Amino acid sequence: MKNILVIGSGAIGRGFLPWIFPPDMWNFYFDDKDEKLLNKLYKRGKYTTWMTVNDRYEPLTIKVSKGVPKHIDLIAVAVGTRNFLGLSERFMNSSTPILCCENDSRLVQKMRDITGNDNVFFCIPDVITSNTAPKKLLDVDSLSLVTEDGTMFIDAEMFDDLKGYCNKTQFADKEEMKEQWMAKLYLHNTPHCIAAYLGWGQGYQFVHEAMQNEQIRSCVDGVLKEMIDMVSTVYGVRRDFAEWYAEKELNRFSNQLLYDPINRVAREPMRKLALSERLIGAAMLALQVGITPINTINGIVKAIRYNNPNDQDHHIMKLLNEIDIETFVQGVLHLRPEEKLYLMLLEGLNG
Q: Which percentage of the chain shows pLDDT scores above 90?
């Protein structure tokens, strides 16, 4: 048996990774800033993650060991992009392989540079995993989570002696990792969060509920078409692959077994609205190659209006009600008045 330390006990860390690193081969240890959750896991000593398979749920029970042993074979980190580099002191001068499950491929080299550990590897969880479950599963196990039957793409440079201990995994070279990452970033992350922002505006709780709304589904479909054009033009992603990937995404957003909360997918809108990120960044790239991303901009407007008082970024988003729109777009979103996107966003926000 090998030992894995999972830092971040949310959707990916607790719901999906046990399907990749099977519990009959790995002892699981968890660390998380949510001490209440950790105490529940330690007290129970186990929990259940459920995989959606066609029209049913398949359970997997994970035994949870308390504490962290002296020898760890693999550390998997799923704490959110804002928090990943904050773990650098903990990883300083370590040689333990670290798997970065975050939505930013740039973090790997940054962590390597800071810590001196070259054994930090990027992975792409091609999956949607909820951080909760429907009531009937929570009644069975209050710590239940639901995940799709997904695939983990991992940098092929990862240690060979760990590769035989993984399921549902593809070890990919740099070229394939790049194509999979562009698809994940713009054909999954972009339309996924837009579906959440549109759903929030209509009062839905889960993404699959929002996708049953024809107007929302039509907009998300439009976003996917815009992103297909963008990634194939800007990044040279194969168009047939992009079209296949987009169709897969549209269907998976509608999976009625997932119970993926809108407030999970929509969380931290300011991160998603960064100039190099999945919303404004994607729209700017589209405009640069002559694509007018009408649906994507509609989603950006809804993201800007995501005024959830329980969200970490609420203190920023509520500024839209306290300052004029032009100041918000320039000062908070850092768009310049001479940019086409600036004018299109003002039109949408004033509409």
A: 93
Equal CATH topology for 2-172 and 176-350:
no
- Cα–Cα nearest to 298, from 212, 178, 193: 193
CATH of domain 176-350: 1.10.1040.10
Query: What's the pTM value of the predicted model, to 2 decimals?
Result: 0.95
Rounded CA Rg of the chain: 20
pLDDT tens-place string over residues 114-155:
999 999 999 999 999 999 999 999 999 999 999 999 999 999
Tell me which residue has tokens 């005024």: 307
State pLDDT tens for residues 66-87. 888 889 999 999 999 999 999 9
Domain 2-172 has CATH 3.40.50.720: yes
Residue in 203, 204, 207 with CA at minimum distance from that of residue 194: 207
* Residue 330 clears pLDDT 80, i.e. is over it: yes
Q: Which residues make Cβ contacts (< 8 Å) with residue 43, sequence separation at least 6?
A: none
CB neighbour list of residue 347: distance below 8 Å, 6 or more residues apart: none
CB 97 within 8 A of CB 158: yes
Helix, strand or coil, per DSSP, at residue 61: strand
Domain edges within the chain: 2-172, 176-350
CA distances (Å), 125 to each of 67, 167, 174, 213, in order? 26, 12, 16, 27
